[in-house]
Automatic annotation (TrEMBL):
Residues 83-277 form the Macro domain. The keyword Transferase does not apply. SMART domains: A1pp. This is Protein-ADP-ribose hydrolase. Keywords: Hydrolase. It comes from Candidatus Anaerostipes avistercoris. One of its GO terms (molecular function) is hydrolase activity.
Length: 277
């Protein structure tokens, strides 16, 4: 099945995903493109893991790959190191970058997803968390792989298994420009920050970096783990991220071409600049 443009692909996918969802089979959607696109993303977000016809997956992949091109794929050569951009004197200034933007545009070896303990992505339609954004851009194959990995762990550890804080799980990137996604569950800050929560966040960064070394992934882009829905103070999170990465590079600098601190908010960009420049 061939389609001439994104409009036709969108209509086909919306029809197929509505039929796949018994509850929303009769969902009424406005005719404009943005409304239809939002509806498709919502249906993808709420869909439980499970098989989908190969033809539907093929069209979904074509649709998402075209969207990625239109958003603009950002390669490592497009991002300056802090040595090039700011003349930083940091010991690893030639390997570290601060980049503000949409992490789903990055063509890195891996991007980091701040996941929840279920490790299946965000099920809230069009939620603004990074977990939702990454799964939406990657396609439903990502949730399926995550579910397979978690099922393997449930067989071993029991059906109530949830991924502990601070570990890392590697998957393919599917329709993302990045080759891989490394999922990690960050700490949730309730009443106050304490030593355990700080150590948990440190473990997230260490686990991701170890995963990169073990899988020969030479470039990785970190999101600001736990600073959003999990309420970790942004300034403290940045300090832990920079120190953990710097300490790790003391022993593994040769294993990495680039480590990117990806920020979305102005305040995070400011904190990382203060620490690295």
């Amino acid at each position: 099945m061939k389609f001439s443009d994104q409009e036709e692909r969108l209509d086909y996918l919306l029809k197929e995903f509505k039929e796949d969802s018994v509850q929303y089979r009769d969902l009424e959607v406005d005719d404009d493109y943005d409304s239809r696109r939002m509806a498709l993303r919502s249906l993808m977000n709420i869909r439980m893991p499970g098989e989908m016809p190969e033809e539907v997956l093929k069209v979904q992949d074509e649709f998402l790959e075209e969207e990625a091109k239109k958003k603009g794929i950002v390669t490592l050569s497009d991002i300056q190191t802090i040595q090039e951009e700011y003349q930083s004197s940091h010991p690893y200034a030639d390997k570290i970058s601060i980049w503000k933007g949409d992490i789903t545009r990055l063509a890195a070896g891996a991007i980091v997803n701040a996941a929840n303990s279920q490790m299946l992505g965000c099920f809230i339609p069009c939620h603004r968390c990074i977990d939702n954004a990454i799964h939406s851009a990657a396609g439903i194959e990502l949730r399926e792989e995550c579910n397979c990995r978690m099922n393997q762990k449930r067989v071993r550890f029991g059906q109530q298994y949830e991924e502990p804080t601070g570990r890392a799980m590697l998957t393919k990137g599917y329709n993302l420009p990045a080759e891989h996604v490394i999922h990690t569950v960050g700490p949730i800050v309730g009443y106050r920050l304490n030593r355990k929560l700080k150590n948990d966040l440190k473990n997230c960064y260490e686990s991701v970096l170890k995963c990169c070394v073990e899988n020969n992934i030479r470039s990785v882009a970190f999101c600001c783990i736990s600073t959003g829905e999990f309420h970790f103070p942004n300034d403290e999170a940045a300090k832990i991220a920079v120190k953990t990465v710097s300490d790790f590079l003391d022993h593994h600098a040769g294993d990495f071409d680039r480590v990117i601190f990806n920020v979305f908010k102005d305040i995070d960009e400011q904190y990382y600049k203060e620490l690295l420049i």
